[in-house]
């Protein structure tokens, strides 16, 4: 099954799946909500390093309420990734230069701000290659991502042209779907990731899972209820945040001040505060405090030579009021800095 004929067949199969779902909507969608993929249970500290297909850093913004998990599956040249986030967080990321990334919510976090756009439960994001993004989620959730090499869209070129979707490999957008359509897309993707055939009982579908998934994505975007474009310079707040977060990215691990970010963004501190509130749901000062707490935690979890002390590590990361900092650290991570230090098996010599 090759060429345009094969493309039409796979597109029809995708549409047929939607009709089958509609025949038993309540029961089928309930089963999809319970269907999960195998993943590795992690701590928050381990979580970021296990997320693939994107260069990303996470900031925990409130104490964890659940587990953190990540897993991956390969569907020919497409990577499906899935995970669970145990609490509220901010993520800053950069997509790989060789993939288009689709990010979907499997279970809703309750409140999501993606590059300043307040996303709804059944929205998903399309991120072209080498695209920066920021996201703030409020509460535990499960997510699913699909990484597609741009050249693969040649398999569905006819569908892309017919539906005016040439922007997929070029522009960052948020796609809104009907609840049933969102659950269908997630459910079928999970089936494919588990190794199930694209069309049950159809021998000709062997090896066509990749094309089938591409058609599912195109069908989902074509049937969207709304599509929002998210260029960095479209709105003043996005332009401000783009400059500020570029500065943050280039000073990873450094302790920054509000004045540093305001200067980098070329705006007054008040304007910067408004942009942070709109884009991430918190003000600049609170963001930098959370960032500092996370930087210190990463530093405490690292291996240090004999002679390093807890006090030394805190001081190196700009902590001067140890008692106050320990209280703020405990409120965020649920333990004292000394407990993180001890658990990380630091040398006994010189500890405080």
Would you list the SSEs in sequence order as H and E?
A: HHEHEEEEEEEEEEHEHHEHHHHHHH
Estimated helix fraction = 40-55%
The proportion of strand residues reads 15-25%
Largest sheet: 8 strands, antiparallel
Total strands: the figure is 13
Average pLDDT number: 85
DSSP helix count? 13
Rough outline: globular
User: Which regions are unreliable across 5 or more consecutive residues at pLDDT < 50?
Assistant: 9-34, 346-352
Rg, alpha carbons: 22 Å
Class of the largest domain in CATH?
Answer: Mainly Beta
Structural class: alpha+beta
CATH topology of the largest domain: Jelly Rolls
Q: State the distance separating the first and last CA atoms.
A: 68 Å
CATH superfamily of the largest domain: Jelly Rolls
CATH architecture of the largest domain: Sandwich
Keywords, separated by commas or semicolons:
globular; 352 residues; Arc Repressor Mutant, subunit A; eight-stranded antiparallel sheet; 2 domains; Jelly Rolls; 13 helices; alpha+beta; 43% helix
Could you give the topology of this structure?
Blueprint: H1 3-23, H2 25-34, E1 40-42, H3 44-50, E2 54-60, E3 68-75, E4 78-85, E5 89-95, E6 100-107, E7 112-114, E8 117-119, E9 123-127, E10 132-137, E11 141-148, H4 157-162, E12 173-176, H5 179-193, H6 209-222, E13 226-229, H7 236-250, H8 258-265, H9 269-280, H10 284-301, H11 310-316, H12 322-333, H13 337-343
Antiparallel strand pairs: 1-3, 2-5, 3-4, 4-11, 5-10, 6-9, 6-11, 7-8, 7-10, 9-12, 12-13
Helix pairs in contact: 1-6, 2-5, 5-6, 7-8, 7-9
């Amino acid at each position: 099954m090759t060429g345009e004929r094969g493309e039409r067949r796979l597109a029809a199969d995708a549409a047929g799946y939607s009709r089958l779902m509609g025949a038993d909507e309540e029961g089928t969608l309930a089963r999809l909500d319970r269907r999960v993929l195998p993943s590795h249970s992690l701590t928050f500290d381990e979580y970021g390093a296990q997320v693939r297909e994107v260069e990303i850093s996470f900031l925990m913004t409130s104490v964890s309420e659940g587990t953190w998990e990540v897993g991956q599956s390969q569907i020919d040249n497409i990577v499906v990734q899935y995970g669970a986030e145990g609490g509220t967080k901010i993520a800053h990321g950069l997509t790989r230069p060789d993939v288009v990334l689709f990010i979907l919510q499997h279970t809703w976090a309750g409140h999501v701000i993606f590059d300043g756009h307040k996303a709804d439960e059944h929205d998903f994001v399309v991120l072209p290659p080498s695209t920066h993004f920021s996201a703030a989620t409020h509460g535990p959730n499960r997510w699913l991502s699909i990484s597609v090499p741009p050249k693969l869209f040649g398999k569905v070129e006819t569908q892309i042209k017919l539906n005016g979707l040439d922007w997929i490999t070029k522009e960052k957008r948020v796609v809104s779907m009907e609840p049933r359509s969102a659950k269908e897309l997630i459910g079928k993707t999970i089936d494919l990731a588990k190794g199930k055939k694209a069309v049950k009982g159809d021998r000709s579908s062997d090896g066509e899972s990749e094309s089938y998934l591409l058609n599912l994505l195109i069908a989902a975007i074509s049937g969207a209820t709304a599509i929002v474009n998210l260029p960095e310079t479209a709105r003043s707040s996005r332009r401000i945040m783009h400059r500020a977060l570029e500065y943050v990215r280039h000073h990873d691990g450094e302790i920054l001040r509000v004045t540093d970010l305001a200067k980098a963004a070329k705006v007054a501190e008040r304007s910067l505060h408004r942009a942070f509130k709109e884009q991430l749901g918190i003000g600049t000062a609170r963001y930098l405090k959370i960032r500092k707490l996370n930087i210190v935690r990463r530093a405490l979890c690292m291996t240090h030579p004999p002679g390093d002390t807890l006090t030394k590590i805190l001081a190196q990361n700009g902590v001067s009021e140890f008692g106050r900092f320990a209280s703020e650290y405990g409120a965020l991570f649920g333990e004292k800095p000394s407990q993180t230090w001890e658990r990380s098996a630091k040398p006994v010599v010189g500890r405080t």
